[in-house]
Amino acid sequence: MSGYTRWDDIRAAHVARAGGEEAVAAGKHQLLTEQSRLRITNRRSIFRVYMSRRRSRSEATSSSMHTTMARVSGTSGSYTSTP
Asked: How is the chain split into domains, by residue range?
């Protein structure tokens, strides 16, 4: 014996102390939901920073070229280049 206790040997006592299998399942669901929410929030904030930097680069380029930002970024659907 290595001195370690197997999880299978002590799980039943911990589940009973937590309030049963339903309580353990509910707690697991709550933790997974919170983790997913935090991950989505983090991705959204990274995307906002990316778009902010992209927007500022387009603004800097448009001012140095003395043109509108729509022409630089290509966001205007009505702009077509002339040959």
From this structure: 29-59
Nearest to 27 by CA among 38, 39, 13, 14: 14
Per residue in 10-25, is it b (16+ CB within 10 Å) or e — as a string? eeeeeeeeeeeeeeee
Which of 50, 80, 48, 76 lies closest to 62, judged by CA?
Answer: 76
Question: Which residues have CB under 8 Å from 15's CB, separation 6+?
Answer: 21, 24
Q: State pTM to two decimals.
A: 0.51
User: 46-74 b/e with 16+ CB inside 10 Å = b?
Assistant: eeeeeeeeeeeebeeebeeeeeebeebee
pLDDT tens figures, 13-47: 999 999 999 999 999 999 999 999 999 999 999 99
List the alpha helices (DSSP H) in 66-81: 69-73
